[in-house]
Design brief:
One of its GO terms (cellular component) is chloroplast. With 757 residues, this protein is α+β, with helices and mostly antiparallel strands. It contains 28 helices and 22 strands. 48% of the residues lie in helices and 10% in strands.
Length: 757
């Protein structure tokens, strides 16, 4: 039970339940509710069967605003707790710790009730079939909608009087969903025209939802969804290669304008760096303030791509801004990268109730007091007003929660503002940076939002990718480029060190060298949950980038090892594609082949790209095996690619990559510990080209030479034939048929930047 505590110390609690011994920050937040919570597991299931009562399943995560609201309104309410304890067995699940459980019941709620979100509230039979569900419920009936207490009474009544109907309905729903979500391919081949058609269809569907006023796709609430930008950039590249440069430019301009609006908007934390989850309005101004690791990694990669295409440092600054925020606030002592920061925090030290955005917003008077002579200048730049500035849209602050408060947003360009103030742009930027640093120092003294210091393999994989890529792409910033707070302006190679430490943490703490299996997450030790498809796929993608952008061969070896385990655990060898779980945990009643590319890409989309990339690194039967698995996977989702490409933008990219007639390989040969080698790597990655692979090899290293002898003998031969002790040699190849060797990094960069004639 939620036992009543007796002690009298300042740390005593009136109630303590079974969640008190868990590691998840979210579960620990509920450890002292009067609700008799159980964690997901056999003890709870057995209790429901013994008492013959339904299960109330509540799923959320530690930085979820509406989860906090429902806790305060219902789970801390003794009357509600009594109903739950008397009539149900109540289970709490952290969706970040158990995405497999979340997927089952979120799919059910979305299918039956046309909407989803967190907190997810679902009632189950003792054998875990869903009976009824929803998301957030207010405690009492309101606006014609039932309150949580009413819902509890209705479920109790239905369980007592219509149990058979209820259980049959839940069983039927799961059977239907299982059939729909375990799609198999009718063929292991893709129709030849499908990849190009899917890319075009997805780009057209996104273009129809483009917002020409504020950038991005769709309307309020507006989410970054980096996979959309990735699709548009990739499609623009394909258009350019086919001679349609005007169409390509039109698409690029959509992406670039959206990225500029996001960077100027309140969704971007101008003072501390990084991006918030989404904007409640259409103008990227007032955000939902939580910061999620999966956003930071993906958004960084999109800005890096924009910089690669344009060489405009405004994009590289944003990439650095995000990564420097992560290095400062989100990395543990052993290099592990944490999951999230909450939207809510106390407005003042000692306050018992938290408020969304309290850590991030400012009054006009605070700006005056902190910035003195530069206050007016800063307030003009960031649209700060005494009455508050959350007035750009009727969606920005419909309930006046931010009255008198300001969320920083840049309304005019830096060049325009600098001109208005009669100063050079550099000086203007310098003053803004100094002002932001002063605000940062004051903000650091405020009560901080809760940090979820759980380490999730999949999200670390996404971030390892962006850190590794930044280490070389940012070397192409012009010499003498200046940086302004919160950007540190470090040597880009430092980002590679951070990426390698994060990968090493996962390998030492969450990977079993004997079984070659991953665990999903870490907090005070590995989680009980095994690695899921996303953990393998996202980490493999990160490791491939870690290798290609200058990390050791060991990361490529591990990626190949993990791919073999992924195939063993998740691959449907007959029907094609990957399931999201191994199927070994029988309490997870739905095994899904996920295809939707949402806030996070789908494990199948990322896997398809990984397989294409791996097939270009190795040769022979293993290369063919990877390509065949990629094509079979994409064939599973043929209908989706044909009809609803906008739901699967990254999968469209994967199809495009697979269908590229001959991928480009750049092979760098030489001693890797030289500055010259770093320069060549930067040149190899200077241009945006998702259809190229970079291989680097030192043929005097016996381990490297042996690896390539075994996995791609052509690379080993090239390396031995072109090695020179005093220089680096680059070979640019199509399917390992190579042009003349290059010994100058500038010539390599120029060759790779050539546009098709």
């Amino acid at each position: 039970m939620a036992a009543r505590s007796s002690g009298g110390s300042s740390h005593s609690h009136s109630y303590t339940n079974r969640l008190a011994t868990e590691h998840s920050p979210y579960l620990l937040q509920h450890a002292h509710n009067p609700v008799n919570w159980y964690p997901w597991g056999e003890e709870a299931f057995a209790e429901a069967q013994k008492r013959n009562v339904p299960i109330f399943l509540s799923i959320g995560y530690s930085t979820c605003h509406w989860c906090h609201v429902m806790e305060v309104e219902s789970f801390e309410n003794k009357e509600v707790a009594k109903l739950l304890n008397d009539w149900f067995v109540s289970i709490k699940v952290d969706r970040e710790e158990r995405p497999d459980v979340d997927k089952v019941y979120m799919t059910y709620v979305q299918a039956l009730y046309s909407g989803g979100g967190w907190p997810l509230s679902v009632f189950l039979s003792p054998d875990l079939k869903p009976l009824m569900g929803g998301t957030y419920f207010p405690p009492d009936d309101k606006y014609g909608r039932p309150g949580f207490k009413t819902v509890l009474r209705k479920v109790k009544d239905a369980w007592d009087n219509k149990r058979d109907v209820l259980v049959k309905s839940g069983t039927f729903a799961i059977e239907q969903l299982s059939e729909a979500l375990s799609t198999t391919a009718s063929s292991n081949k893709l129709p030849e025209e499908l990849p190009q058609n899917a890319l075009r269809l997805c780009a057209e569907q996104l273009s129809q939802s483009y917002d020409p006023n504020f950038g991005g796709f769709g309307s309020a609430p507006k989410f970054p969804r980096p996979v959309e930008a990735q699709l548009m950039l990739y499609y623009a590249k394909k258009l350019e290669e086919s001679g349609k440069s005007d169409e390509a430019e039109e698409i690029l301009n959509m992406v670039f304008f959206g990225l500029q609006c996001m960077a100027r908007g309140g969704i971007h934390d101008h003072v501390g760096g990084g991006f918030h989850r989404y904007s409640v309005d259409e103008c990227w101004h007032v955000p939902h303030f939580e910061k999620m690791l999966y956003d930071q990694g993906q958004i960084t990669n999109v800005y890096l791509d924009a910089f690669s295409i344009t060489k405009d440092v405004s994009y590289s600054w944003v990439s650095r801004d995000i990564l420097d925020y992560l290095r400062r606030d989100m990395i543990g002592t052993q290099g592990e990268i944490f999951s999230a920061e909450d939207a809510d925090s106390a407005e003042s030290e000692g306050a018992t109730r938290k408020k969304e955005g309290a850590f991030y917003v400012w009054t006009s008077k605070e700006i005056d007091d902190i910035l003195g002579e530069h206050a007016d200048f800063f307030k003009e730049h960031y649209y700060i007003k005494p009455s508050g500035n959350c007035d750009l849209s009727r969606m920005s602050d419909p309930h006046d929660e931010f009255k008198g408060k300001n969320v920083l947003i840049e309304m005019k360009s830096v060049s325009e503002m600098a001109s208005n103030h009669g100063m050079p742009v550099e000086k203007y930027l310098e003053i803004l940076g100094e002002c932001r640093q002063k605000l940062f120092k004051v903000r650091e003294r405020r009560p901080k939002p809760h940090l979820d210091d759980k380490v999730i393999v999949s999200w670390n994989g996404l971030t390892i990718s962006s850190l590794a890529r930044a280490s070389k792409i940012l070397r192409n910033e012009k010499e003498g480029t200046r940086f302004y707070f919160p950007v540190v302006g470090c040597d880009p190679k430092e980002y590679l060190d951070v990426a390698e430490k994060a990968a090493l943490f996962i390998k030492t703490k969450l990977y079993d060298e004997q079984t070659h299996r991953l665990q999903h997450s870490f907090r005070n030790g590995p989680s009980r949950a095994p690695g899921f498809l996303d953990d393998y796929a996202f980490l493999i993608g990160g490791l491939l980038d870690l290798y290609e952008y200058g990390g050791g061969l060991n990361w490529l070896v591990w990626a190949i090892e993990l791919q073999a385990t992924q195939d063993e655990l998740f691959l449907d060898r007959e029907g094609g594609g990957y399931y999201n779980t191994t199927g070994e945990d029988k309490s997870v009643i739905l095994r899904v082949k996920e295809d939707h590319d949402g806030a996070e890409p789908s494990g199948n989309s990322v896997s398809a790209i990984n397989l294409v990339r791996l097939s270009s690194l190795v040769s022979g039967s293993r290369s063919n095996y990877y390509r065949q698995n990629a094509e079979h996977l994409l064939a599973v989702f043929e209908k989706r690619l044909k009809d609803m490409a906008v739901a699967v933008p990254l999968m469209c990219c994967a199809a495009g990559m697979l269908s590229t007639p001959s991928r480009k390989q750049v092979v760098l040969v030489g001693h890797k510990n030289s500055a010259q080698f770093e320069t060549f790597l930067a040149a190899a990655h200077a241009s945006y080209d998702p259809n190229s692979t970079v291989i680097h090899i030192d043929p005097t290293d016996d381990t490297e030479l042996q690896f390539w002898e075994e996995n791609n003998r052509g690379v080993a031969v090239m390396a031995k034939n072109n090695f020179a002790a005093d220089k680096v040699v680059a070979l640019v190849c199509q399917n390992f048929t190579c042009k003349a060797p290059i010994t100058d990094p500038g010539s390599l960069e120029a060759m790779l930047a050539e546009k098709p004639s």
